[in-house]
Amino acid sequence: MLAPSMSKPHYLQLARQLTEGITQGRYPLGTLLPTELQLCELYGTSRHTVRAALNELQLLGLVSRRKNVGTRVTATQVRHGFQPTLA
Questions:
Q1: Domain count of the chain?
Q2: Which H helix or E strand runs over 42?
Q3: Is 3 a member of any domain?
Q4: How confident is the model at residue 86 (pLDDT cuts 50, 70, 90)?
Q5: What CATH code is carried by the domain that includes residue 23?
Q6: How does the average pLDDT of the chain come out, rounded?
């Protein structure tokens, strides 16, 4: 569950947690992340928040997304030189 916070939007909190899961090996390279609905249940948040978080991961170069397939881990490190919005 995401912690209530006035300083960071929920989608950024979720994106940070998912990024940590990827970089720490919880979600290995080439695997699919849980579905949007599973992430909603797991983190107690809305689908809109989950989609925004997954979009952040895509911008960081960590995942690729395909309709009716899912979100696949494509890298375990943020692309060098890319300035993430999660900082």
A1: 1
A2: helix 36-43
A3: no
A4: low
A5: 1.10.10.10
A6: 89
Establish if 85 belongs to a structural domain.
Answer: no
Domain span holding position 61: 10-73
List Cα–Cα distances, 1 to 15, 50, 67, 69, in angstroms. Answer: 13, 12, 26, 25
Are 19 and 63 contacting, i.e. CB atoms less than 8 angstroms apart?
no
Asked if residue 34 belongs to a domain, the reply is yes
| Per-residue CA distances from 15 to 21, 73 (Å) | 10, 13
Q: Quick one: pLDDT at residue 81?
A: 52
pLDDT for residue 5 is more than 60 = no
| Cα 35 to Cα 67: distance, rounded to the nearest angstrom | 11
Reply yes or no on whether the pLDDT at 87 is more than 50.
no
Angle between helix axes 36-43 and 47-59 (nearest 10 degrees) is: 110
